[in-house]
Amino acid sequence: xxxDTSAARGAEVLVxxxxxxxxYEVREDGSLHTKRGGGGLVSGLSAIGPDAGALWVCxxxxxxxxxxxxxxVGEEGVRMLPVPADVHxxxxxxxxxxxxxxVHHLLYQTPLEPVFDAGFRRQxxxxxxxxxxxxxxxxxxxxxxxxxLVQDYHLCLVPxxxxxxxxxxxxxxxxxxxxxxxxxxxxxxxxxxxxxxxGMLGADRLGFLTRRWADxxxxxxxxxxxxxxxxEVGVHGLGADAxxxxxxxxxxxxxxxxxxxxxxxxEGRKAIVRVDRTELSKNIVRGLLAYRQLLDDHPQWRERVxxxxxxxxxxxxxxxxxxxxxxxxxxxxxxNAGYGTPGWTPVLLNLKDDFARSLAAYRLADVALVNPIRxxxxxxxxxxxxVSDEGCALVLSREAGAYWELREDAITVNPYDVLETARAxxxxxxxxxxxxxxxxxxLSAAATALPPARWFLDQLNALRATQPG
Length: 469
Ligand code: G6P
What we know:
48% helix; 469 residues; binds 6-O-phosphono-alpha-D-glucopyranose; seven-stranded parallel beta sheet; alpha/beta; six-stranded parallel beta sheet
């Protein structure tokens, strides 16, 4: 096996997350194809080097992943947990994405939801089982006194469970999401609230993306469990990975897509670009409504601008996500039918995941629209300025974590206020090229202040400086 040596002495650094750095796909001829994931955590972990004896524990999510586990195939430094599909579905779709994600992003339509019934309790039991599988695997793999960095709302109970199994470990947990304010967190049943908070407080150190989310967590602890119980809370605002982005965005596949995209947009037209998962919290529909308002209020932009909206499929097992995607499509069609002309399609909606094409859009965007209802950080706001060819005006929600780092050079909006957002789009489109380029330069500097490698190492060092337990 690939971790024979590390199994003997155990891993010194462990990362745990629901989604891992690789996934597998079974090809028609029965062979397994490996797909490598991206993101801040992957590049952050690579910073400690391949010889550091690091191990990433994640779940086997696809059929290919489960097949890889069955065949004993694996990447060095990655252990996939074959959690039964029904347990994973209840934990991931049920609790993580329909309860915890909704609470932290304030997404409930409260006259009807949430309903905490017997079905919820069944899902909660699965969430516990799922977290226990991680805690047990980590306990088995960790060297004496090792550092364990647990990621996100999928795994809130892991620190507490792991602490009981292995009091010698240094345990950290990082939240990539916002944290709910206490009044909203109090929607959850009292015992569940306590279990979540106590689970996280099993860690030596907790990390958040902004001071705002860290303070909300602390306030929830004060309200429900009498405080932080000696757990340290730190703020680490993940930045964009400039080296990776600059290199990747100048490869031939991106250059090709720039040519194609320019053609679709049309000669001499400006582009308002957004790139998101089709995610309820991303506020894609109000973005479209603001764009329509712009065309009403400032008809001079008609035929002179295109809204290039990337809305990649996400969490499609959940009906609300499927409905939201249909609504994005419906409003797009309505705008195109109502305003389009033979030579001009006002909205170019991209529903197929194509990373190279979204990088092409980043490079040519005149305006980037980042208007989430609420967002832990939002890396799109940080990535666009880094790769922009000629400068891009950024319209940014005040509810995104990135707001606190980028507000000075962005045009900021209340994400619910469609009229304000329409005015911001007009201001962004009208910005003089010189000012736009200057602001983009400053945005790029702020966006890359804490590259993923530093972000990861800072946390590791801070965790190692704590006293275990
Ligand atoms: C957020 C979460 C991540 C998650 C990502 C994609 O950024 O903080 O943990 O991986 O969304 O969502 P998904 O459900 O597809 O993993």
